[in-house]
Write a structure and sequence with these properties.
6 helices; elongated; Four Helix Bundle (Hemerythrin (Met), subunit A)
């Protein structure tokens, strides 16, 4: 019988979510994996809204929070993009805006992969 963890691993886009990291973080518990992915998906929506609507001084803090959450599930592109936002928030507004655009792209890809993973039986 195929386990949910195996199904998730087989259906996820390889470069978006690191299955080994997700499995490690959830101790191989497939139900916990699903719960963590749902939680991340909800949290990322809130954090991106805060990032887009905050003053640059607060953007770095929100990006740092997102970076930690993304590392927990192995969304390495989100981690890297959030780090760029963190650094850019201390520089110019235009650089910060460009970094946020890049983060939004990485987040959209991660959310798409998560949706695909959660659709798996």
């Amino acid at each position: 019988m195929e386990t949910m963890a195996t199904t998730i691993e087989q259906t996820r886009p390889a470069a978006v979510i690191d299955q080994a990291r997700l499995t490690q973080a959830t101790f191989g518990d497939s139900r916990l994996q699903r719960d963590v992915l749902v939680l991340f998906d909800r949290q990322v929506v809130l954090l991106m809204a805060r990032i887009r609507n905050s003053a640059p001084a607060a953007v770095g803090s929100h990006a740092h929070t997102l970076k930690g959450s993304a590392a927990g599930i192995g969304a390495w592109a989100v981690v890297a993009a959030a780090e760029v936002v963190e650094r850019a928030s201390a520089t110019s507004l235009s650089e910060c805006d460009r970094a946020i655009t890049g983060l939004a792209t990485a987040v959209d890809e991660a959310r798409g992969a998560i949706a695909e993973m959660l659709r798996a039986p």
